[in-house]
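seq:
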Amino acid sequence: MTAPSTPIKRSPLAMAVLGILHLEPMHPYAIQRRIKEWGKDKVVNVGQRAQLYKTIARLQDGGLVSVRETGRDQQYPERTVYEITEPGRTACLTWITEMLNTPRNEFPEFPAALSFLMLLGPDGARTELDKRAIALRATLSDLEAGMASAAQFGLPRVTMLEDEYQQAITKAELHWVESVLTDLTDGSLTWSWESLAAFQDQTTT
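struct:
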């Protein structure tokens, strides 16, 4: 499959917009609502409608979507309905395959904060990681409840794969955070400014 000659940079939101329009033409509000109704807002940031409009504008500038019609009625202001173009369909499938088959370092915040965890000291680190463990358990509980509810409605598994992935990732992170907390509590993981300074001296001499 050959990618379209477009300067548009892929993003989860841009891919989601093309994916929604791949099924039927819609106006931006309906796109946002559909993403939320399908639960895709757990993996695609669609909270800010302004960002959604900017993304659609970029896709239109790149020729991946086009205006199908503009209309209005007594209840709503003017609404522009967008549809996907053939280059947009190609780009959507290309982005999906690339996102699936090629791991990418997305530079999330948590590993970045871990790289400077020593600044909090062992007690501070234990306090904050304990808060994260509590939040992860709550997230995991919500995910499991949502998946159980979806199973009752008989949703096809393929529509819930992102939830399965989020569940697996959350479980793995919680397991790791709890192991670090255990080491911080029993003292097998500890440090001091003196020990860090001594190590710094060794590496610079």
